[in-house]
Amino acid sequence: MRAADSPKSRLAYIDWMRGLACLLMFQTHCYDSWLGGDARRSTFFMYSQLGGTFPAPLFLFLAGISFALVTEKLRQKNLAAGQIARTTLRRGAEIFGFGLLFRVQEYAIAWGWAPASDLLRVDILNTIGMSMMLMGLVCWVVLAIQPGPRTRLAMILVAAGTALLISLSTPPLWTTWRPRWLPWPLESYINGVHNLGTPQAWLFPIFPWAAFAFAGLAAGFVLQSPWVRAHETRVFLAFGVAGVVLVELARWLDRFPTRLYAVYDFWHTSPNFFLIRLGMLMIILATSYSWCRWGAGQWGFSPLIVLGQASLLVYWVHIEFVYGRFSILPKRAVGIRAASLGLLVIFLAMLGLAFLRTRTKGRSAQVVAWLRPRPASAG
């Protein structure tokens, strides 16, 4: 069997995409944290931050695809719907717990100047965890109602419909239909209001962000179809073409003079912007698959695949050296050249960390034994 056809190789594009999300995240955070003065008003900075609109959708979209792969694997073991739900809900709860723990760590490191409300900030890990739990509940309901040969089709339709519903519900939930009766820590999971009185665009509430996870869930179940597995090349090409069509459709809809919502915010809550980004994700998915199958994606050592395999770790660690107390450069005080050198240092450091993580994963006993002092040999 050729390497390109092995199961490990077939799914390499998922790790590669996740690694791409890490790279885009690094550059967005580094330039945002370190650039100051005129550099912060430059076209370079504008495009850097525009690239920063992709990491969160990528992470959520890939979480949905991975969730579908896990759910399908559990289905093939003939587990009951309740057992599948418990497994997937537990994993979502773990990620959500990591999100809460990360907030505690950030607050502890910033002790003395970070407000206590930061403990309740809705960050990307919180939303990934919440999205996974919501996907677990939706899959549980579908598995219970529609067992049998049409389950996968039902999953695809319900996941796609949920993604669309979340996107369409976002504008009013941020404005005219805000659930003001909820305490702000709960409302913040709906629209990112935090404790500031109005929804904040820099947070990651369920609306609209979970829509990307459900879109990934639908895509993941499509990719699990036996017919799709037998015709992967055509299907991924179709994903890319559909992505282009989706982008153009969203741009056409945005030019419509009629508005469905009392308040229209294209960059933060618009369903049209969601469709544009979803179309771009589909194009990236098709490109990643092609690059890993026929391009240089798997030629020897792949930095992006390695980063993708340890994305949670490098996300967790790099924040402290970019935004935190241990930032390697002064914040908002350097030019593009210095910030770019800092970005290179962060990239190489996180790549090294990810490499160590992937090489030692599952070998903790061997590592401990290697580190343990050996007794001196007798005479």
Tell me about this structure:
This protein is mainly alpha-helical. It folds into 2 domains: 1-52 and 300-379, no CATH class; 57-275, no CATH class. The protein contains 16 helices and no strands. It has helices at residues 7-10, 12-34, 43-51, 55-76, 81-109, 124-145, 151-174, 184-191, 206-223, 226-230, 232-254, 271-293, 303-309, 311-322, 336-360, 364-371. Helix 2 (12-34) packs across helix 12 (271-293).
Sequence-ordered SSE layout with sheet pairings:
Blueprint: H1 7-10, H2 12-34, H3 43-51, H4 55-76, H5 81-109, H6 124-145, H7 151-174, H8 184-191, H9 206-223, H10 226-230, H11 232-254, H12 271-293, H13 303-309, H14 311-322, H15 336-360, H16 364-371
Helix pairs in contact: 2-3, 2-4, 2-12, 2-13, 2-14, 2-15, 4-6, 4-9, 5-6, 6-7, 6-9, 7-9, 11-12, 13-15, 14-15
Query: From the helix content, strand content and strand pairing, which structural class follows?
Result: mainly alpha
Percent range for β-strand residues: under 5%
Q: Distance between the terminal alpha carbons, to the nearest Å?
A: 54 Å
Helical proportion, percent range:
55-70%
Spans with pLDDT under 50 lasting ≥5 residues?
1-8
Quaternary state reads single chain
Provide a count of the helices. 16
The ordered string of helix (H) and strand (E) elements is HHHHHHHHHHHHHHHH
Overall mean confidence score, pLDDT: 91
Integer count of domains: 2
Strand count: 0
Largest β-sheet summary: none
Taken from the alpha-carbon principal axes, the silhouette is globular
- Rg, please? 22 Å
